[in-house]
Design brief:
The complex is a heterodimer of chains A (117) and B (114).
Chain A: E1 3-5, E2 10-14, E3 19-21, E4 24-26, E5 31-38, E6 44-50, E7 56-58, E8 64-68, E9 73-78, E10 87-95, H1 98-101, E11 106-107, E12 111-116
Parallel strand pairs in A: 2-12
Antiparallel strand pairs in A: 1-4, 3-9, 5-6, 5-10, 7-8, 8-9, 10-11, 10-12
Chain B: E1 5-7, E2 10-13, E3 19-24, E4 31-37, E5 43-50, E6 53-56, E7 65-68, E8 75-79, E9 88-95, E10 104-105, E11 109-113
Parallel strand pairs in B: 2-11
Antiparallel strand pairs in B: 1-3, 3-8, 4-5, 4-9, 5-6, 7-8, 9-10, 9-11
Chain lengths: 117, 114
């Protein structure tokens, strides 16, 4: 069975400082990995994904994430956080091979990010 | 291009009543998914349509939940009768063919059963 862990319920960071949101996963075989963000009163918005290739992937709004196979991690990062980055962030995984567990995504519990001015 | 849209955005119903949620996927997306987030916990998979066929309904909690996707376009998720534990946010997502795995989500329907 696949699973995702986001160990921090909340991350507080000062505006301008680096932001990291942690994610570790467990899946059979190679993974597809995703980050989604939910701004207040909005739906889930796709940020970025890892499929294959370069371990560092870049996404929307200056976010990036690094895939680390040995540590089974996919931490989300932003070099300089903005107050507008305050939101709920979800990490999700799906196996590369659809037959393993279908097309469905398995999500972490979410991490609330609060960026203070 | 319009994104995934869901109706209603909020619904408050009494225990025992029936509620129907609707999802309109992105045009041309054959894959349609339903997920829900209950009590601030993780988002959990409910089911997956490919066009009008149910590909995977392993996440449906019980037979009070019925999902349909007639004609392979929009989908409905009916809860009948609703129970208190059904309260949460119900998300719909759609994606293209299997080699394009990114699912795009709607804004969700917040269901409150009182």
């Amino acid at each position: 069975a696949q699973s995702v862990a986001q160990p921090e319920d909340q991350v507080n960071v000062a505006e301008g400082n680096p932001l990291t949101v942690k994610c570790t996963y467990s899946v059979s075989g190679n993974p597809y990995l995703f980050w989604y963000v939910q701004y207040p009163n909005r739906g889930l918005q796709f940020l970025l994904k890892y499929i294959t290739g370069d371990n560092l992937v870049k996404g929307s709004y200056g976010f990036e994430a690094e895939f680390n196979k040995s540590q089974t991690s996919f931490h989300l990062k932003k070099p300089s956080a903005l107050v507008s980055d305050s939101a709920l962030y979800f990490c999700a995984v799906r196996p590369l091979l659809i037959k393993a567990a279908g097309n469905k995504l398995t999500f972490g519990g979410g991490t609330r990010v609060l960026v203070k001015p | 291009e319009a994104g995934v849209t869901q109706f209603p955005s909020h619904s408050v119903i009494e225990k025992g009543q029936t509620v129907t949620l609707r999802c309109d996927p992105i045009s041309g997306h054959d894959n349609l998914y339903w997920y829900r987030r209950v009590m601030g916990k993780e988002i959990k998979f409910l089911l997956h349509f490919v066009k009008e066929s149910k590909q995977d309904e392993s996440g449906m909690p019980n037979n009070r939940f019925l999902a349909e996707r007639t004609g392979g376009t929009y989908s409905t998720l009916k809860v009948q009768p609703a129970e208190l534990e059904d309260s949460g946010v119900y998300f719909c997502a759609s994606s293209q063919v299997r080699d394009r795995p990114t699912a795009f989500f709607g804004q969700g329907t917040r269901l409150t059963v009182v």
